[in-house]
Amino acid sequence: MSFPDQDEDGFGPDDVIRLTGVSRETFSRVRAYLDLLDVWRTRINLIGPSEGRHLWRRHVYDSLQLLDLIGPGVKTIADLGSGAGFPGIVLACALADRADFSVTLVEKSVRKAEFLQAAVDAVRLPAVVRNQRIEDTHPVRVDLVTARALAPLPKLLALAEGWMRPGGQAVFLKGREAASELTLARESWTFDISARASMSSPDGQVLAISFLKRRAK
Asked: Which of the pair, 132 or 149, is modelled with greater confidence?
């Protein structure tokens, strides 16, 4: 793999394993996925050319920090706007041994969807790729919806609504605008929320949203 063994700040695979508690056997699936990402990124724009300097913290750890929010009863996840596979593919790698577990990866780009399918096949992940715009796809009700860097929260909630089963949850990785996005989102939606600082970014927030409902007009 031509990705650096560590980030430029020295953060690397051992740190990811120590902080998330994933087994080295589980992490081998993440490694296999990253090997494929390394090959494909020379063909299509999956991650920026400089992102290898922050791969382990900004992408791998960023995705795996969601694991403690995914309870044992979660069997189905929809990852909206999956892109290069963060967090959807990484979560599939981590939870592949969970009985009856599956991830639906929704990605509008044909080339990125091709990569996602190649990763699913190569690593033998319990995941299905849907090459469609989120607005055009027929949603399947799932236990948990995830998304990262996809859209401002008001729009993101509209995209996620159809995928969330009654009693389900959405977990979003957001940036420094999370507070203002929450204010705007509450104009059109009611929901319960648990927010915490991102473990991977000083400016990030992880938003866990449940009991989502549109406000009456």
From this structure: 132
